[in-house]
């Protein structure tokens, strides 16, 4: 088994920890914010987990081991949610959310800017770049529309 598979599992566990933080903290704000955050993370996680599964297969894991390891990284999300709930201040959820949501949002923005934007800038075909930018704007629009309802 290659070390890249284990590094991917570690990164996925940390990623799931921050997702758990975001989901729990957003439900501390309101049910609506919690559902919106959960939907956004689920839409992000489906292709992400499929990609991670492929990375594990390429690293030498068999299908069953890769699936078990992927499931084990989900414990990071449970730990993150538990941490957010346990970190809730006796003065109310406002103090907890005041640092958790900006922390997780900043992490998501950092990942997007570091991973997606350089690929967009290196794209040779302007049509592909335009499609990606339009899809990015569509995603932002959907989230704005959902937050207004």
From TrEMBL:
Annotated TM spans: 69-87, 99-117, 129-148
GO CC terms: membrane
Matches recorded under InterPro entries: ZIP
Keyword Transmembrane helix: yes
Localization (cell): Membrane
One function term, GO molecular function aspect: zinc ion transmembrane transporter activity
Catalytic activity: Zn(2+)(in) = Zn(2+)(out)
GO biological process terms, semicolon-separated: intracellular zinc ion homeostasis
Keywords attached to this entry: Ion transport, Membrane, Transmembrane, Transmembrane helix, Transport, Zinc, Zinc transport
Membrane topology: Multi-pass membrane protein
Domain of life of the native organism: Eukaryota
Pfam family name, one: Zip
Protein family membership: Belongs to the ZIP transporter (TC 2.A.5) family.
Name the record gives this protein: Zinc transporter ZIP13
Species this chain originates from: Syrrhaptes paradoxus
Gene responsible for this protein: Slc39a13
């Amino acid at each position: 088994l290659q070390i890249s598979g284990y590094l991917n599992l570690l990164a996925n566990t940390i990623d799931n920890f921050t997702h758990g933080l975001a989901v729990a903290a957003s439900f501390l704000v309101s049910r609506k914010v919690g559902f919106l955050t959960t939907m956004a993370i689920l839409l992000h996680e489906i292709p992400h987990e499929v990609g991670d599964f492929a990375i594990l297969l390429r690293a030498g894991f068999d299908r069953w081991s890769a699936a078990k390891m992927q499931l084990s990284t989900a414990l990071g999300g449970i730990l993150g949610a538990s941490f957010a709930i346990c970190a809730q201040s006796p003065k109310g959820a406002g103090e907890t959310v005041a640092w958790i949501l900006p922390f997780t949002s900043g992490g998501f923005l950092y990942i997007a800017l570091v991973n997606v934007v350089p690929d967009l800038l290196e794209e040779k075909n302007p049509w592909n770049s335009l499609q990606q930018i339009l899809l990015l704007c569509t995603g932002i629009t959907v989230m704005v529309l959902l937050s207004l309802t």
